[in-house]
Specification:
- The structure holds two protein chains of two kinds.
- In chain A, strands 2, 4, 5, 6, 9, 10 and 11 form a seven-stranded mixed β-sheet that branches. In chain A, strands 1-3-8-7 form a four-stranded antiparallel β-sheet, with no helix packed on it.
- By secondary structure, chain A is mostly beta strands.
- Chain A has strands spanning 5-7, 10-13, 19-24, 31-37, 44-50, 53-56, 65-68, 75-79, 88-95, 105-106, 110-114.
- The relative contact order of chain A is 0.33.
- In chain B, the strands form three sheets. In chain B, strands 2, 5, 6, 10, 11 and 12 form a six-stranded mixed β-sheet that branches. A four-stranded antiparallel β-sheet of chain B has the order 3-9-8-7, with no helix packed on it. In chain B, strands 1-4 form a two-stranded antiparallel ribbon.
- The chains are: A mainly beta, B mainly beta.
- Chains A and B meet through strand 4, strand 5, strand 9 and strand 10 of A and strand 5, strand 6, strand 10 and strand 11 of B.
Chain lengths: 115, 114
């Protein structure tokens, strides 16, 4: 078990550019979550997948945000036409969900800076 | 409105002193409850969780938390704080029937004085 990994750890981009982040969950975990964390705040839920199905995406911040998990393993979060307000830490988490509620295991995050 | 409140933005304690971090929630049904810790440059680490049963739960690093239904609270405690406990602490709730979505409080930053 190598934990949840995220790549890159840091990303600096210019306003208007597109960025894509990758998350590799713990291998046997079937659920994967994306959060955004801004300075001085707790993580804010964005979206989640069960296997390859995206079960909730209404809380993505705008239509510039999209996420995929094409084979039910790793996931990508894309932000198109970035804005300075998108600067934040983007966290990924995974869990193994069967018949009950399970804790989420978090990756180290990708820190995005939009200049 | 549904919410998770951590009323203390920042707490400073002396090493060896006791610690209590407060968390209150407002949801229609009792959610599942968690405490996470975040050190600078690190991901969130689970300290403990409450699903049901005994309202006093033990976690890692000597932490414990008590669920009080009447007060809608889930306060985190530690009898004797170590300098390495300095970090940001987040309370999280997962309401039932939300697909295990987590809602986090704004966090409490802990400073430990030698």
């Amino acid at each position: 078990d190598t934990g949840v990994s995220q790549d890159p750890r840091h990303k600096i981009t210019k306003r208007g550019q597109n960025v894509t982040f990758r998350c590799d969950p713990i291998s046997e975990h079937n659920r994967l979550y994306w959060y955004r964390q801004t300075l001085g705040q707790g993580p804010e839920f964005l979206t989640y997948f069960q296997n390859e199905a995206q079960l909730e995406k209404s809380r993505l911040l705008s239509d510039r945000f999209s996420a995929e998990r094409p084979k039910g393993s790793f996931s990508t979060l894309e932000i198109q036409r970035t804005e300075q307000g998108d600067s934040a830490m983007y966290l990924c988490a995974s869990s193994l969900v069967g018949t009950g509620i399970y804790e989420q295991y978090f990756g180290p995050g990708t820190r995005l800076t939009v200049t | 409105a549904q919410s998770v409140t951590q009323p203390d933005i920042h707490i400073t304690v002396s090493e060896g002193a006791s610690l209590e971090l407060r968390c209150n929630y407002s949801y229609g049904a009792t959610p599942y409850l968690f405490w996470y810790v975040q050190s600078p440059g690190q991901g969130l680490q689970l300290l403990l969780k409450y699903f049901s049963g005994d309202t006093l739960v033990q976690g890692i690093k000597g932490f414990e938390a008590e669920f009080k239904r009447s007060q809608s609270s889930f306060n985190l405690r530690k009898p004797s704080v170590h300098w390495s406990d300095a970090a940001e602490y987040f309370c999280a709730v997962s309401p039932p029937n939300t697909g295990n979505q987590f809602y986090f409080g704004t966090g409490t930053s802990l400073t430990v004085i030698p």
